[in-house]
Amino acid sequence: MPKVSIIIPVYNSASKGLNDCIDSVLAQSFSDFELIIINDGSTDDSLTICRQFTSIDNRIKLIDKKNGGVSTARNAGISIACGEFITFIDSDDIIEKQYIEKLVKISNHTDLVVCGMIQYWNNGKQKKYQAPEGCFNMSDAVVFHQLIHSRLVFGPCNKLFKTEIIHHHRIQFPEGLDYGEDRLFCFEYLRYCKNFTGTNTTHYDYLIQDGNSLSTIYRPDIFYLEYDQWKRLYKVYEQLNVLSRRAKKDLYTELFWMINDEIAHLAQTHQLSRGKLEPILDKPEIFNLKRYSPDINTNRFIKSAILNRSAIRIILYYKLLSICQR
Q1: pLDDT tens digit sequence for 143-163
Q2: Domain map of the chain by residue range?
Q3: Are 35 and 61 contacting, i.e. CB atoms less than 8 angstroms apart?
Q4: Strand partners, 39
Q5: CA gap 153, 176 in Å, rounded
Q6: Which CATH superfamily is domain 4-208 in?
Q7: Tell me: the pLDDT tens digits for 197-238?
């Protein structure tokens, strides 16, 4: 049984760094792994590239399936994974040579290993994310909130997951969902973790190809998808008994900005109406927002209208603003 199962979903990645991605895996200083590549119905040369690699390294398992989305591809990989740990890599990303070795080295007696990550954009911009350093119990409210606040557990990459936990609790990526499925998988996994180990060193290079991904394009259901994810994360805090006052404040502040941003977009696209606003303002959590509103620095009129759930006041404000800007 290999120590680590590496899962790479592939869809039309031939010209997006697929060769470099697989090369970076095969060049790892740690060799006790299996590489599971899932071709999700690619229509370019991705499958040919994957087969070429399969022919030169017997650690590679290749699944060729009809296109069903990244969640179905990752779930297919999970179903045949037999390593002690599972790690996920996107087909356009690159891992440093000692990535697996360093994560395995700190994996003893822990349910989750998280390392730092650098995001790269095509325009040269980059952003560094760092995890809390050390081994911690999930019951440590302060450190758990730091882990969430780092946003490193909002996606499956740059981690080692215990295969036993995933298989025993039948944790899967939700299929049929094309936004936030990564977060929901991670949030579900966190429910069953007793501890985690973090290292702030960055061993994973995450490439954002362009601004046209599903996670960056506005969509009409964006607020409701993010609201559902917000509720699930809040429930994880409750289940782990780590919902500190600081965590509540940060979570409710994030909820306020989700509502505020959705209202601003509706105003900019001339879609403001009671029919659009009232389902947003009707969320029961808005009652709790008032406890944390003094620290939210934004337009006082809009903030008051949101906290008082007044769709009419919001519509009137933006109508007056439009008249004044003519």
Answers
A1: 999 999 888 999 999 999 999
A2: 4-208, 244-324
A3: yes
A4: 10, 64
A5: 21
A6: Spore Coat Polysaccharide Biosynthesis Protein SpsA; Chain A (3.90.550.10)
A7: 999 888 788 877 654 444 556 678 889 999 999 999 999 999
